[in-house]
Design a protein that fits this description.
It contains 11 helices and no strands. It has helices at 11-19, 23-30, 32-42, 50-79, 87-109, 114-123, 125-142, 146-152, 154-160, 164-178, 184-201. The protein is globular. Bound molecules: protoporphyrin IX containing FE. Protoporphyrin IX containing FE binds next to helix 4, helix 5, helix 7 and helix 10.
Amino acid sequence: MAALSFSLPYAPVLNGALRRVPPWAVYLAGTLPLAWIVWLLFHNGLGVDPVKEIEHRLGKIGLQFIVAGLAVTPLRRWGGLNLLRFRRALGVLAFCYVGLHLAAWLVLDMALLWQQALGDIVKRPYLTLGMAGLVLLLPLAATSNDWALRRLGGARWRQLHRLVYPAAVLGGVHYLWLVKAWPPEPFVYLGAILVLLALRLRR
Ligand code: HEM
């Protein structure tokens, strides 16, 4: 039986245009949100609590890159849009922003009080979940290069990189857990993550 396939109306045109975009351009574009945060910092644009604002913005951007990376396969399978060449850049950027998010918390919020930071990570479930998500991203970041891909072999490398699925869920639940009221945004992120994962089950 022929596989059911869909295609976004302008997918072939977009694919043609995207073939001319080098992956380094995605890395470069990915630094813009960070540059924007730095610009806001030096122009008093981060509100009354700049530390919280920096922390929040970095965490949100990290989550957005995780979602973008997860969307690559469903977009190709269900929309005919081929963004595979950019997936590594999206993953590396996600890891960098989540790493900066942790660093901002450790340096600006916890003033490098390691014992207290560790105690908080153990005591507060939303921090435990976030940390677990980051730890799962570590081996992915470490093997996001051609050398590691060759050493591991395609099958094992792909298997290892499925760790992004639980990492994304942990990141989404971390966000949902820390909000006090029930704003829609964390539900939208977690919902998007779950839908993108569920689409993988439907081949
Ligand atoms: C996959 C890993 C992670 C993701 C995707 C993530 C994402 C997020 C997001 C989206 C927010 C809320 C931003 C907003 O409200 O606009 C947030 C807040 C926060 N995250 Fe993370 N995070 C991760 C890991 C961590 C880790 C490892 C830590 C520290 C151990 C951490 C500490 C915090 C803190 C302290 C807040 C702010 C809480 C508050 O407002 O009181 N996160 N994170």
